[in-house]
Amino acid sequence: MSMYAGRCLLGDYLGSRGWSQRYLARLSGVPTSTVSDYIRNDSLMSLNHAKNIANVLGCNIDDLYEWVSD
């Protein structure tokens, strides 16, 4: 069974913490425009970005997306 990334949950994390995209960008080193792209599901996170963002949020990389099986 294969799994693929569905909806990005980053916006949910930011909302629950009351954080802005700009604040996450500053903490993680990921450009604000890129964070916005991820939240809009316009692109998938690179492994480096996912690792940095997960570290800042205190979660696992797998927690950043809904995972869908085929």
UniProtKB/TrEMBL annotation:
Residue stretches making up the HTH cro/C1-type domain: 16-64
Coiled-coil segments: none
PROSITE patterns with a match to the protein in the record: HTH_CROC1
Annotated InterPro entries: Cro/C1-type_HTH, Lambda_DNA-bd_dom_sf
The protein's name in its UniProt record: HTH cro/C1-type domain-containing protein
Organism the protein comes from: Oceanobacillus neutriphilus
